[in-house]
Amino acid sequence: MGKGRAACCDKTKVKKGPWTTHEDLKLISFIQKHGHANWRALPKQAGLLRCGKSCRLRWINYLRPDVKRGNFTPQEEDTIINLHRSFGNRWSKIASHLPGRTDNEIKNVWNTHLKKRLVVMKKEEYNSSSSSTSTSSHEGQYMDSSSTTFSPTSSKANDQVIDFWEYMLDTSSTPTSINNLDSYSKMATISTTSEHHPQLADEYECQKWLTYLEIELGLTTNNQQE
DNA sequence: AACTACATCAACCGCCCCCGC
DNA sequence: GGCGGGGGCGGTTGATGTAGT
User: Fold this and answer.
1) Are A123 and A141 in contact (CB under 8 A)?
2) pLDDT by residue (tens digit) across A187-203?
3) CA distance A128 to A137
4) Is the per-residue pLDDT at A89 higher than 50?
5) Most confident option among A11-15, A62-66, A144-148, A214-218
6) Residue A59 has what pLDDT?
7) Smallest CA–C1' separation from A106: which nucleotide?
8) Cβ–Cβ contacts within 10 Å for residue A43, how many?
9) What's the whole-number average pLDDT of chain A?
10) Which residues touch strand B (CB under 7 A)?
11) CB proximity A104–strand C (7 Å threshold)
12) Distance in angstroms (rounded) separating the CA atoms of residues A198 and A55
């Protein structure tokens, strides 16, 4: 072998960019059946033209059943701030203290919301400390300092997922066409099911749904479809 | 209504660590 | 002990959405 390390995959033969619903479903279906012992080999086995790392990231950050999506609560944000004081930018470490939250999500929230908020807080602390002496706790300051900026947009995607499952429940759990999925491109979070519709967390229901998807996608007969 | 600036977040990149050989 | 491969992690980017003018 020459200098450096081999690329994790052949970059010319893998697809990049946003994941499609079909890819998501293929990945979910494969992992449900076979697990993810070997990420490098997984794309090929699952019939995906993706890099193993990309699959892993997609699964961990988006498709994993226990991933929690939607708004961060003030408590969670407070926790992140506190943990960041201890761990710095060790996002995975911070994520391990926040069940259902991913390092990527926390990193994004930190970079987009919390960093700015901290600046505001520090300013306020500085200002109030110059006029009075008590500024130790920042609890309750969040919404005051920048309440207009804290409405995470991910709630929209979450709404779509909820809509999707409401649809599924209303139509006795099987859409008439796979095309229905297109308008719910982010439905892949089977995860949220258990949160909003506990009955669908039932393994049997999940399995039923996956089986249906596999048939619709042709995964049961031909892995190379698409 | 059109354009611009800003915010958000999914995904990629590349480095590092760990483990098996 | 050294090497290579795979997985994990943190930084960064680019596409998309939204607010402001």
Assistant:
1) no
2) 433 333 333 333 334 44
3) 12
4) yes
5) A62-66
6) 92
7) B9
8) 24
9) 64
10) A 5, 8, 11, 15-19, 50-51, 53-54, 57-58, 61-62, 104-105, 107-109, 111-113, 149, 152-154, 157
11) yes
12) 27
Average pLDDT over residues A56-63: 90
Cα A224 to Cα A226: distance, rounded to the nearest angstrom: 6
Q: What residues have CB less than 8 Å from A49, skipping those under 6 apart?
A: A13, A14, A15, A43
CA angle at residue A138 from A135 to A139, to 5 degrees? 130
Residue A125 φ then ψ, to 5°: -60, -45
B chain positions with any atom within 7 Å of a protein CB: 7-16
